[in-house]
Amino acid sequence: RKLLLLNGPNLGILGKREPEVYGTSTLADIEESVAKTVADRGWQVTAVQRESEGELVQAVQDNYGTVGAIVNPGALMIAGWSLRDALANYPRPWIEVHLSNVWARESFRHESVLAPLASGVIVGLGADGYRLAALALLAKTAG
Ligand code: DQA
């Protein structure tokens, strides 16, 4: 069984990207912590980070067979309609994660076109948010 860990634009440079906002963990650190969190259940992680929406759509389509997904869409939260439609057809629970507390930031970050489809949304907990999302997916999923 595989868990999809999907990260959108500008998230491949975590660690060096506005660390006062996004923290100092790298995406590799996050991928490792999610992999460790689900390893006991025998799940593996398929980690995909892309800068463009079309490639993220493709990654969702290619991974409809995964057991669940963690998605940080980056700024595509605001108007990522084709990513939203790809996730609408995703058959398993998935959780939207944002490292920063988007509600404490600019108003253009206060809306997500994806969030209504998510099982849950975690914001503002930094890299821990991904690990907590993995725990939530474990709890939601038998076997
Ligand atoms: C983000 C929040 C978004 O508003 C921003 O565009 C990002 C990162 C976060 O993880 O806090 O790229 O998704």
Short description:
The chain is of the alpha/beta class and 143 residues long. The protein contains 5 helices and 5 strands; from the N terminus they run βααβαβαββα. The longest helix has 13 residues.
Description:
The protein has a five-stranded parallel beta sheet, sandwiched between helices. The chain is globular, with a radius of gyration of 14 Å. The chain has one domain (2-140): Rossmann fold, CATH 3.40.50.9100. The protein has helices at residues 19-22, 27-39, 53-62, 81-88, 128-140; strands spanning 2-7, 44-49, 68-72, 94-98, 120-123. The chain has 143 residues and is an alpha/beta fold. The longest helix has 13 residues, at 27-39. α2 packs parallel to α5 (128-140) and α3 runs parallel beside α4. The structure holds 1,3,4-trihydroxy-5-OXO-cyclohexanecarboxylic acid (DQA). 1,3,4-trihydroxy-5-OXO-cyclohexanecarboxylic acid binds next to loops. 1,3,4-trihydroxy-5-OXO-cyclohexanecarboxylic acid (DQA) binds at residues 10, 72, 74-75, 98-100, 102, 109. Its EC number is 4.2.1.10. The record marks 17 as: Transition state stabilizer.
Question: Secondary structure elements and their pairing?
Answer:
Layout: E1 2-7, H1 19-22, H2 27-39, E2 44-49, H3 53-62, E3 68-72, H4 81-88, E4 94-98, E5 120-123, H5 128-140
Parallel strand pairs: 1-2, 1-3, 3-4, 4-5
Helix pairs in contact: 2-5, 3-4
This protein binds 1,3,4-trihydroxy-5-OXO-cyclohexanecarboxylic acid.
